[in-house]
Amino acid sequence: SIALQETERTVLFQSWMIEVIKSRETMERDLRTAIADGHFEVYYQPKVSARDWTVTGVEALVRFNHPERGLVGPGDFIEIAEMTGLIYDIGLIVLEEAICQCAEWHRAGQSTEVSINVSIEQFRNTEFSNLVISILNEHECPADLVTIEITETIAHTNIVSVSDHIKALRAVGVRIAIDDFGTGYSNLAQLTGLKFDILKVDRSFVSGIDSEGKAREVSRAIIQLGKNLGCRVVVEGTETPGQVAAAAQLGCDEIQGFFFSKPMKRSDFDTWKQLRASNPVRKALDSIVAG
Ligand code: C2E
Ligand code: MG
Ligand code: MG
Ligand code: MG
């Protein structure tokens, strides 16, 4: 009967829910252990100048080095970290590590900019901007080498402290980037009330960028919008030489994506950068862009 089917469905649903809750609880427990034992690693993905293909900086991307599951990406744990408040500790680990790394590169005479992602939850902490500034001071890291990436969704949230944190960070020279631009709650009018320095065009725009058509025109308009607002524009998620060339031709300032490199361990990044100095890729790109 229908009633019986309903009961079966309810039972199925309940057992599915229990599984979801259990796996969340397991992840929460694993994250707590990882915070205590230092099982997080920061990977770095290079960003390249769209004018001369030199490396301008990196984006810091966190990974959880899980004792049984191996390397776990942020897509599998950031949400749970946000729900449980563990994002404060994880965020602090990433800020410490990335800023320390930036200062080290600076001391070695390479001014590699480092861009760090933060969650909305971190902005709820009234001490957030002071925390970033004290980490910069502690490592004697020039503030203008550091960018804080926030998503468009954070920018539109009614947390009073968001604009206060942005003001405080920009006052010392830290740059603010709007990440995944074009995918969030796109109330363009609200952009006028916000101060930011860099606009990162979401990678969903990249797939059609290298052929004539609507996708390319939308990308062109977004890049132009960023430039008109006085921002540096970064196109992320480029995987092919055609996409890289198109992004450069549409006037963006920097390009990031698997075409250049996946996010790497710090030691692999150093090797990659050295190899790249004599890499024919740059010449090949020049000729593609020149047509
Ligand atoms: P995001 O900030 O937009 O970072 C870019 C993501 O796109 C990264 O995924 C990167 O590996 C991936 N990506 C870069 N180039 C390409 C490409 O050419 N093709 C494709 N298919 N993907 C590409 P990842 O590392 O898994 O990070 C996912 C998201 O997790 C990030 O998106 C960011 O929102 C969040 N996240 C990463 N690290 C942190 C962190 O330390 N704190 C916080 N709060 N969030 C973080
Ligand atoms: Mg980002
Ligand atoms: Mg992004
Ligand atoms: Mg994202």
UniProtKB/TrEMBL annotation:
Source domain of life: Bacteria
Domain named EAL: residues: 24-277
Residues making up the signal peptide according to the UniProt record: none
Annotated protein name in UniProt: EAL domain-containing protein
Organism: Hoeflea alexandrii
Residue span relative to the full protein: 298 to 588 of 603
